[in-house]
Amino acid sequence: MTWILFFVNAAMMTINQPDLKQADEVIQQAFDDKYFISQQGRYFAQFIADHESFYSPFLKQISFRALGGELEKIDLLGALALRNQKFMEEGPSYPFGGDRVALSVWHKKIENLISVQAEHPNYYLGITADHLSWSYWFTYQFVHSGLSHFAFNMVFLIIFGCFLEVLKGGLFVLIVYLGSGFAGAGFFLLINGPTMAPLIGASAAVSGLMA
Fold first, then answer.
1. Domain count of the chain?
2. pLDDT digits (tens, 9 = 90+) for 6-49
3. Residues 165, 1: contact at Cβ < 8 Å?
4. Residue 151 forms part of a structural domain
5. Is residue 131 classed as helix, strand or coil in its secondary structure?
6. What is the DSSP string of 61-88?
7. CA separation, residue 118 to residues 30, 112, 164, 185 (Å)
8. Which of 22, 27, 126, 143 is buried most, with the most CB atoms less than 10 Å from its CB?
9. 40 and 83 share a domain?
10. CB-based burial of residue 44 (10 Å sphere; 0-12 exposed, 13-18 middle, 19+ buried)?
């Protein structure tokens, strides 16, 4: 059973790698685009100020300082905006003030980014604010952010999974793997709540085998 779990993880990694690499490049380009991040930070600051009841005191304080012209806070909000469910859902159609040309440029880039995220394996197989059904609690355990993430989890899966399988059997390994993955997802959502950033990886499942 341990090797079956390994090969399922490996198959998912192999199948998704081309899409993962292409989507990651587009997303990274967005983060590297200083103008885009700066404009997005300004819009997110406006959005937070207009929807204060939805945001924490921490974000409201950053928004206040960004609206005051602090460039560091503007850039911080620009990056955080991509993880905020409400902004990503409502921001593209929100009537922001300011330069209309800059707003038009931002609209095109954010809409392209949203479409790329929708095709990103981590987003359509991981747990996000839009993907909370039980099927995603299963699939997220077999998706990894890259080769290093995959390799790290698989080394410990093989070491502890094979050891437990000799002692307890394959069914026990499967139950612990999936059960720990479900428990890890539940704990994450309880502490952090659902976000636009996907929860992925076998870390919780493998941690259960190690425990």
1. 2
2. 999 999 888 887 777 777 787 788 888 899 999 999 999 999 99
3. yes
4. yes
5. strand
6. HHHHHHHTT-HHHHHHHHHHGGG-HHHH
7. 15, 10, 38, 21
8. 143
9. yes
10. buried
Angle at 18 between CA 17 and CA 20, to 5 degrees: 60
Residue 133 sits in the same domain as residue 106: no
Q: Compute the Cα dihedral for 192, 196, 202, 205 and give only its sign.
A: positive
Distance CA 96, CA 46 (A): 7
Residue 193 gets which letter from DSSP? -
108-159 tens-digit pLDDT: 989 888 887 777 777 778 888 777 888 999 999 999 988 889 999 999 999 9
Instruction: Give the whole-angstrom CA distance, residue 160 versus residue 181.
Output: 15
148: its two tokens = 């290093």
CA atoms within 13 A on the CB side of 116: 19
* Angular region, 193: left φ>0, alpha ψ -120 to 50, beta rest: left
Q: What is d(CA 148, CA 27) in angstroms, rounded to the nearest whole number?
A: 19
Token code pair at residue 209 = 């085998």
Pick the last residue of a domain from 119, 136, 152.
Answer: 119
């989890």: which residue's tokens? 153
| Under 8 Å between Cβ of 125 and 174 | no
pTM attached to this predicted model: 0.71
The distance of Cα 160 from the centroid of its chain, to the nearest Å, equals 27
Matching residue, tokens 């410990």: 156
